[in-house]
Design a protein that fits this description.
There is one protein chain. The protein has 125 residues and is mainly α. Helix content is 68%, strand content 0%. The chain has six helices and no strands. The protein has helices at residues 3-20, 27-32, 34-62, 66-76, 86-92, 100-113.
């Protein structure tokens, strides 16, 4: 964990502590408080994602040909979330109340109609 990340996490923790009236007067209180760890992890993930996007864009920028840029652009599309997010739209149109099987069938059918699929990633959980 870098000092910058910890500093950002401490700032977030202090802000939340003031808003909620938490007593985190000493450094030991702050370091042992679970919110610090949560904030650190969230910031680390965000910083890592930003770096990943930045690295991908630098590769795109250095590409020499249109064909090379086209291939790299295809890889960059994984960072783009359509607005509105298709899953949010599909869930918003889901029948309510519905059983889990009915909901799953609705999501699969609606996502397929939009050109997406819902599937298990091999090797994951």
């Amino acid at each position: 964990m870098t000092d910058t990340i910890e500093q950002k996490a401490l700032a977030l923790l202090n802000e939340v502590a003031v808003e909620r009236g938490y007593n985190i007067a000493t450094p030991a209180d702050r370091r042992t408080h679970y919110l610090l760890e949560v904030a650190c992890r969230a910031i680390e993930q965000h910083e890592a994602f930003r770096q990943e996007v930045s690295d991908a864009l630098l590769v795109y920028q250095k590409a020499d040909s249109v064909a090379e840029r086209s291939l790299i652009w295809d890889a960059l599309t994984r960072f783009i979330i359509a607005k509105p997010d298709p899953l949010v739209v599909v869930l918003g149109s889901a029948p309510y109340p519905a059983s889990s099987k009915e909901l799953a069938a609705h999501i699969r059918a609606d996502m397929k109609a939009r050109g997406y699929e819902w599937r298990k990633i091999e090797g994951e959980g």
